[in-house]
Amino acid sequence: MLFFELVLYVLLGLAVGSFTNVCIHRLPLQQSIVLPKSHCPNCKTTLPYYYNIPLFSYLYLQGKCAFCEKRIQQRYIIVELLSALFFLYFGWTYELNINLFYFFILIPIFIMIFYIDLKHLIIPDSLVLLIGLLALGKLFIPNLDPMFTSLYPSTLGALLAGSFIGGLIIFYQYVRKMEGMGLGDLKLFIVLGFLFGIHGILFILILSALSGAIIGSCLLIRGGKNFKTQLPFGPYIIGASFLYILIGPQLIKITELFLLNIFL
Ligand SMILES: [Zn+2]
Q1: What distance in Å separates the CA atoms of residue 235 and residue 65, rounded to the nearest whole number?
Q2: Domain boundaries, the chain
Q3: Which segments of the chain have a pLDDT < 50?
């Protein structure tokens, strides 16, 4: 692959990361993601284009607003770098075709859900809907990566996710009289189930539950909070989904081989 091509993926990733930051800030506040132009959240000064260049402006301004010198949240630079890294990885791994298009849309959506749920404890319906559209669209696109499964495993995946998580929510509400997971988590699981099929959603369910239980209890112990404190679950679902699109299919193949060796 041409070096030039890889540089392009990094720059595209930085630009998409910059847009992702705007959405993370504005979607939960129900503001337009197009207008007004970017401004400092502290002093509200509209940023001229040369202070709005991903990564470079941050470095040049040494992480501070050029006008009020307030520190720029680290999240801005982390999101841009993450986005650039993921774009580089998928650009390197996949040929320039419809698969890459799918990943390049999923990456910013996943990052947005991660940060918005972390901060606001909500998962915007608009983002879930976008994943749903990708999940339906794949049925009409030939030659997609097998990660995006066909109708039958997809339907199973959505049903499994819906009934399992739906059951959990009902259990928590009626039996333990507390809110476990929210409807946002349920909707996200269902569209991911349809997108990645039964194998994929099993992987994501197990991994998010495990990491959520482990990291969640550590946070509760450290924070001295009781078990009724509401914690966002979306970041774990997204973490597991990222791992799935990175190494999931290979991992599933290995486990299948391993299980076959044990049982046959
Ligand atoms: Zn400022």
Answers
A1: 28
A2: 1-93, 122-264
A3: none
